[in-house]
Structure prediction request, 200 residues.
Amino acid sequence: MKINPLAEFKQEVLIQKTAQKGIEKIYKQKPFFFFLIAVVLLFGGYKIYDVTKPQNVEFERSEPIEFVEYDDAGNPLLLPERIAKRDKEIDGIKNKKRKEGPCIQYAIRVKQEGFYPLCKGGTIFLRKNEIWKYGKTCLAKEERYPNFDDMLYDFIIETVGTEEECLIQEKLKIYNYALLPENLQRKVPIIRPPGNCQDN
Prediction:
């Protein structure tokens, strides 16, 4: 049997046109189906907050904040002005009448490495068990943090005592955070824990 190249070519073109018409027919009948697939491909697996990805990282600076100096042996120290500010605030705590207790000073540490929120915006990378925040409360954990995420954070009680005692411990730890190895090993160290917006 002789092969007719022209006939074969016409037949192949006809098959391609028929297939194209079939696809167009499906698309016209079910445009929502294709729209749904596109949405799934674009947003599938996305989380509103995912510790594995940075969220609007803003903490990076071209130069570190000046809040630490080093002695002759290479040990990190707070700058004198930071020490003076801390001590003044501690004096203010002592000079005001406070609750007798019981109160607690606590630390919030992260359970897994990833990107965690900075209280003033952006995120920062923390390794497992690093400090996210120091705090003080005279309430139960459930009252202080009704929506506490036990999957991401550990709530650790460090001091139990009067309100004054716990406030002083909170103050000392917030200021001394700047000297922790986990902070100083960063390319750009930060002045206080990521979850503490201020020194108090």
